[in-house]
Amino acid sequence: RISAYKTCPRSYFIRHQLGWRPTGTGIALIFGLSWHDAQDVVWTYKDKFKTDELAALGHAAFCKTWETNGLPVDIDVAREAQYAPRTPMVAAEMLYNYCDARSKLFRSSEVVAVEQPFAVPIPGMAGHWYIGRLDKVIDTNGQRVIVEHKTTTAYAIQGNFRPDYLDSWFMSAQVKGYQFGGGLYYGDINAVWVDAALVHKKIHDAFKFIPVSHNFTLLQEWLHNTVRWITEISNEEENFKHSGELLPGMFKKNDESCFGKFGACPYIDICRTVPDPSKLTEVPAGFVREVWEPFSVLGLEKIVKTTEVTA
C-alpha cells in the first residue's frame, strides 16, 4: 500500500479507499504468479525428485495458475507474439535449467518455510503492522536467509541482466521491509536473496542470486521513512473520511506516473475524466469493487494475537 501511495496518491485512493480493482490481469503479472507457484513446488520437493521430474512438477503448477488466470497453455503460432517471451513453453525450459542450476544449493540447504506470512508491529505506531509474505526462508551454510523470487525481461548482452535492474534491489523498500519484518519474525535473518530469473525468447538459463543485506542504521532510516509515509496516508484517509469528498490537494495526482514500464496506469481514464471518483454512483465499467484485506488473505489474525501476547 505504501508503494502504491508513493507511486500516485490518486491511484492509491481509487484502489484502496474506494476499493476499485481493474478486471483482468496483465500477462507479466500472471507469468510472475505462475513462476512463484512453480517455485513453491520445486523448493518443497527439491530433495525427493530428480531434475527433470522436479521441473515437470513445477511446470504443472505453473500451468495450473496460468490457466486459472484465463490464459491458454497451448498457444498457436498466430497468437504467440501476443505473449512472447512469457509463455508456458518458455517457462518449461526455464524450470528445467533452474532446477539444474540450483541443484547444488538444493542439496546444501534446508527449507524453513514456504510462502510464510508475517506481521510485526511498527515501533511507535499503535495498531499499525508491517505485513507481508516471504517466498522462502532457507538455512544454508550456517545462515538463515529469505529467498525472494523475481522474473524480469531486463536483458543485457553482458551478464544477461541489466546492471540497473540488479542495482535496483539494493534500494528496494520491499527488500528492506522483508529484512526488517522477517528479521523480527524469525530473529536471526540478516539477508534477502533476490532470486532473479530472466524471461527471454532464446535465453532460458539465466538466473542470478542478488544478495541484499542492510545494516542497522539503514534499516532504521527505512523505518523512520515508513512511519512518515504511514502518517501521511493515515492523515489523508482521515481528512477524506471527515469531508466525504476529495477537497483540493487531497490524494493528489502524480502525473509523472501515468505511464510506467508496464504501460499506462489502469486508472488513467478515470483520472482524466472525473475530478472526484468518489462522486460516481457506480463502479466504472472494467472495474470491480474488491476491498484489499491482506489480514484475511494471509491468515494473519493468529500471528498478530501471538505477537501481541509475546510482546
Architecture blueprint of SSEs:
Blueprint: H1 2-7, H2 9-17, E1 20-22, H3 27-44, H4 51-68, H5 77-83, H6 88-101, H7 103-108, E2 109-121, E3 129-140, E4 143-152, E5 155-156, E6 160-161, H8 163-168, H9 173-186, E7 189-198, E8 207-212, H10 216-243, E9 259-260, E10 263-264, H11 268-271, E11 287-289, H12 294-298, H13 301-310
Parallel strand pairs: 4-7
Antiparallel strand pairs: 1-11, 2-3, 3-4, 5-6, 7-8, 9-10
Helix count?
13
Mean pLDDT: 91
Structural class: alpha+beta
Question: Mind summarizing the main beta sheet?
Answer: 5 strands, mixed
Identify the strand order in the major beta sheet.
2-3-4-7-8
Shape: globular
Topology, number of strands? 11
- Estimated radius of gyration: 21 Å
Low-confidence stretches: 305-311
Strand percentage: 15-25%
